[in-house]
Amino acid sequence: SLIRLSDYRAPAWRVGKIELAFDLGIDATEVTSRLHLQRDPTQEESLRLDGEGLELLSISLDGHALSDDAWRYADNVLEVDGARDGSVLETRVRVQPAANTALEGLYLSGSREAGFLLTQCEAEGFRHITFFPDRPDVLTSYTVTLRADRERFPVLLAGGNPDGSGELEGGRHWARFVDPHPKPSYLFALVAGRLQKITHDYTTHSGRKVQLLIWAEPDAIGQCGYAMDALVRSMRWDEDTYGREYDLDVFHVVATHDFNMGAMENKGLNIFNAKYLLADPDSSTDDEYRAVEAVVAHEYFHNWSGNRVTCRDWFQLSLKEGLTVFREQQFSADMNSAPLKRIEDVALLRRAQFPEDAGPLAHPVRPAQYSEINNFYTATVYEKGSELVRMVAGHLGREGFRRGMDLYFSRNDGRAATLEDFLGALGEANHIDLMPYLAWYAQAGTPRLTARGHYDAAHRSFTLTLSQHTPPTPHQPTKQPLPIPVKLALFDREGRMMPLHVAGDGAEASGGTERVIVLDRAEQSFVFQQVASAPVPSLLRGFSAPVILECDYSPEELALLLRHDVDGFNRWEAGQQLAARAFDNLRDGNATQALDAWCDALAALFGATAIDDALLADLLTPPSEIELAERERVVDPSHVHALRLKLQEHLALRIGRETLQQRYDALAEHTSAQLDALSQAHRRLKRRVLDLMASIDPWHAHTLATLQYDNAPSMTDRLAALAVLVRGNAAQAHAALLHFRERYADNPLAMDKWFSVQTQLPADAVIERVQSLEQDAAFTLKNPNRVNALFGAWARGNPDGFHRPDGTGYQLLATRLQQLDALNPQVAARLATAFNGWQRLEPTRHAAARAAIDALAAQTQLSRNLGEIVRSMQHG
Ligand code: ARG
Ligand code: ZN
């Protein structure tokens, strides 16, 4: 049953007000709901409410119990006769939180004895709690009463402002919450259990006093301080940057170890996967700290981009997710280093989104149809969606974008909006037609941008010809040209930027060194005048559009940009392009020009003093195996793995043992657990240098790694050392792993890293290790983080170790997917996307992967989630 964007119809019934009461219990919770119904007079439809797995205890309409022939509950729909505009429907249902392993709706986190109850409703979890028109365009005012045993559930929380609490008979108590802002059901949340809190008094720019509360289980409350700090900075930033303030008296944030996704922006009660909330130096890496900062900001920013302005339907998901990822990226860039953030984001886009867009699961940022909406919380909707917002923001400029966002927020406040509303408001505020960008939302696939330059010495002119082409994707054989903004600069052969004079430019626009040209046809030429010598164009600066650039640079030209480009991002980008060419050199074995240019340029930069250590670390990192594989027509993951190692070996040798050792020693000298940018940069470079050393002198590197492991003051250093040992030396790794297991046995997030790091074993040993780790007492298929730490890290993070030619990797994953699907369909479906790219595998692996996927597809019990992914994999 496919849901189609083109089938959208406004709801026939709305709910002005809902009064919810919960009698909470771990095995059984009873939910009473009173819906104040509103009928759309132009539609005839009878009242139909969503409800899944609900045990209906009683039902009444306008105070009278309904007779059995006045309602029907089948196929997850409750149909009720006789409802009128203004009617009040009361239902009482029972649900079973402890039996809910799908972690959707109301469920138990942790043990029966010590765990707590919580909800996850996006996208369609509310229908697992009560009967309701469970769609984002039904906005309702919520009054929620929670009742529970006081000893077992001392803390009772729901979204909105507190509205009283008190004692009940038999050791029970109650608490009520009223949310003054009408909201869709996917933003409902409650939490109940033995939680502890930290608080902070925050005053908004306009003077509203807000109490911020972060809640966690007793053993984790000490790790919430950094999240509170990030929350306060996020709130201030949104006020300063977008003029957006928080709008309730309280803001709750809760950490749980049992969560399907990263976090959830429930109104006034954000719930986080502990992985993105808890942090301390002893158990979190620098990258994890930055992830906490980013996700705290992301969920907070949703209060405006998502909650105050929500989505009309789930096809518009990127309206809130793409926009919020973009806002979060801006925030992170402001808090840290902007070029490093851009490098991280583009690397993620290339690793996660480009392969998705090139494979059987490719879909537009606004999909045209889906079977299971939870399968569309993808890198395309999130990351590519953010890139589309970035293009539009770049088009409008800083002030213009702010003007447009102001209009978008004010015009759509309290509404369920569409992408047309978004582009319309941004455009109108700036008297620009942005609707051509809608094509980006509707078209799947990554455009290839080809650039050719021609220098005419006689006329001192440079002609840049740009053309675009998007390969076909499933269900979308033909593609149209898209507007592609290309930010560029021209460099002379000494590495200096040249003034730009574009033919037809007004004089005032002329003369800068950087500008944006927009390609909006299949092919177009741009002429630059007064160009003193043949230039090297630096194209797509800052990654101004999410495309694959094909430009026939010579290795020398790329090396020039790598050495001289002033923009950190573009310098890195030139290095990535050059590394990819160096990879081709090694693969084809017929030239070493690019390899030499790459190694020489980096060896020179390695000695330079002016360069930031963190940027240097990124420059020294070749594209990932996944990115390199994307460039191949036929993929042999082992070959890609081996060649990438060779690439690093060449680089390490060119820099030289001595030089690497000196740098490592210098960096190891001021080792600390401090979190300032400089300390983080040192650790990042140290890790990279140790990796490079391991590629040429493994024994020596393992000795250093063992020392580093033993003396590490932070998880960043400890885990970096452990990773080197695991990849290279069984005996030393064994000792360190035993120590780690012992030390962190009670820390689930650290234990996840213990599982993950072992999935990076060399290909010949990793499957056996994965199978033995499954037997570890700490492993369980019921915890999504643990599943991802083992199976996700292996299948996605170790391509060589997953794609075994004999197909044993595929069989193992397929078997576990089937077991996992019975427990948690969302997590199973997401893990199954690890098969992406199988069609381009070399013949032996191709056949083995096909067999495993076909066998999985032949299972009759598959959930709608996993079923949709597997079928797309097969036929995509
Ligand atoms: N809206 C959440 C976010 O901030 C994601 C929740 C998605 N949950 C799900 N089950 N699909 O990105
Ligand atoms: Zn989000």
UniProtKB/TrEMBL annotation:
<keyword id="KW-0862">Zinc</keyword>
<dbReference type="InterPro" id="IPR001930">
    <property type="entry name" value="Peptidase_M1"/>
</dbReference>
<dbReference type="InterPro" id="IPR035414">
    <property type="entry name" value="Peptidase_M1_pepN_Ig-like"/>
</dbReference>
<keyword id="KW-0378">Hydrolase</keyword>
<feature type="domain" description="Aminopeptidase N-like N-terminal">
    <location>
        <begin position="100"/>
        <end position="187"/>
    </location>
</feature>
<dbReference type="InterPro" id="IPR027268">
    <property type="entry name" value="Peptidase_M4/M1_CTD_sf"/>
</dbReference>
<dbReference type="GO" id="GO:0016285">
    <property type="term" value="F:alanyl aminopeptidase activity"/>
</dbReference>
<dbReference type="InterPro" id="IPR042097">
    <property type="entry name" value="Aminopeptidase_N-like_N_sf"/>
</dbReference>
<feature type="domain" description="Peptidase M1 alanyl aminopeptidase C-terminal">
    <location>
        <begin position="556"/>
        <end position="873"/>
    </location>
</feature>
<dbReference type="InterPro" id="IPR038438">
    <property type="entry name" value="PepN_Ig-like_sf"/>
</dbReference>
<keyword id="KW-0479">Metal-binding</keyword>
<feature type="domain" description="Peptidase M1 alanyl aminopeptidase Ig-like fold">
    <location>
        <begin position="445"/>
        <end position="551"/>
    </location>
</feature>
<dbReference type="InterPro" id="IPR037144">
    <property type="entry name" value="Peptidase_M1_pepN_C_sf"/>
</dbReference>
<dbReference type="InterPro" id="IPR012779">
    <property type="entry name" value="Peptidase_M1_pepN"/>
</dbReference>
<feature type="domain" description="Peptidase M1 membrane alanine aminopeptidase">
    <location>
        <begin position="226"/>
        <end position="433"/>
    </location>
</feature>
<dbReference type="Pfam" id="PF11940">
    <property type="entry name" value="DUF3458"/>
</dbReference>
<dbReference type="Pfam" id="PF17432">
    <property type="entry name" value="DUF3458_C"/>
</dbReference>
<keyword id="KW-0645">Protease</keyword>
<dbReference type="Pfam" id="PF17900">
    <property type="entry name" value="Peptidase_M1_N"/>
</dbReference>
<dbReference type="InterPro" id="IPR024601">
    <property type="entry name" value="Peptidase_M1_pepN_C"/>
</dbReference>
<dbReference type="InterPro" id="IPR045357">
    <property type="entry name" value="Aminopeptidase_N-like_N"/>
</dbReference>
<protein>
    <recommendedName>
        <fullName>Aminopeptidase N</fullName>
        <ecNumber>3.4.11.2</ecNumber>
    </recommendedName>
</protein>
<keyword id="KW-0031">Aminopeptidase</keyword>
<comment type="similarity">
    <text>Belongs to the peptidase M1 family.</text>
</comment>
<keyword id="KW-0482">Metalloprotease</keyword>
<dbReference type="InterPro" id="IPR014782">
    <property type="entry name" value="Peptidase_M1_dom"/>
</dbReference>
<dbReference type="Pfam" id="PF01433">
    <property type="entry name" value="Peptidase_M1"/>
</dbReference>
